[in-house]
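Problem 3 from the worked examples.
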Amino acid sequence: MKSVLRIIVFVPLALIILFFSMANRSPVKIGLDPFATSDAAGPYVEAPMFLVVLASMALGVLAGGASSWLSHLPVRRAAKIARAEAKKTRLEVEKLRQQALAELPADAKAGKR
């Protein structure tokens, strides 16, 4: 079921990206100097428009992912501590269970089975 959903979502998305890339192949200037005037051009890069748009989207996705990952650090740290405490508690419960069973009288052990 998941593979069908992936096909339904990603094939049209890939086609849209492909058609967008084919339609926007003309080069555009990307100025690197924010204070440059029109008559005194600063450093710039020429690249196809589709590359500029897709690279911008990729950088946005990476920035959003990094931001989300960093904002969830305290939650992951708390979960790690909670898992360690739960493991320690399970081991302690098992140890106490074994001690309690060892302290039972022999006839109580036999009667229980």
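Problem 4, a separate protein:
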Amino acid sequence: MKDSTAVPSSFSLEEWINNPLKDAEISEDILEVDWMQNSGDKAEPFDNINDTYEEADEAYEIEWVNEEFGEQKALTLKQRRILGNLYYHWRSYKDNSGQGGEVYNHVPCRTKIQGRSPDVAYITPQLAEHFGDLEVFPQSFPLIAEVASPADLAEELIAKSHEYLRSGSEEVWLIFPENRWIIIITENQKLIFGSGDIVYTQRLLNGFSVEVDELLG
């Protein structure tokens, strides 16, 4: 989301990966949870990370961008509804189709030079097995969606999508609620879907489709 306040920090990207909330100036009730504490030699699984994000999601998303923390303001009700719709549809489809994998909201990942927290992300079962239970995914998720806020600039979101594609993503959805557009970007193409269209995946979750109007509500 665009509407953010940068918090200067001496943290490096590697330190953000080890603790994406440490030293960020957010409410004490969120900071009570240390995301990156390991239990013995085993890191807490992705599901625990997602549970914690559900708490932090009420106030902020935390990213590490341009060598400093970015505290990103909470989503609007409209954005939350769309995010929840997409999360539900992707998760239901990956279960019902038997393709497996996992779907997350606001889970941290590393691009080549930044620490990001995509709105919705999907990981294939092969990558889940390969990387195991990690606190921060070491590359961009294969399938990512970002829901634009009123303050977001299309150019900045498109640049962010290319950042994802350069670091492991195969497909990025940019959702613009006010325009009722969904732009899907892959390495080789950009597709625009609008009101009245049926939007469908290009590279991941093969066969998934949903009406744009149903998704946007």
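Solution to problem 4. DSSP finds seven helices and 13 strands in the chain. Residues 77-96 form the longest helix (20 residues).
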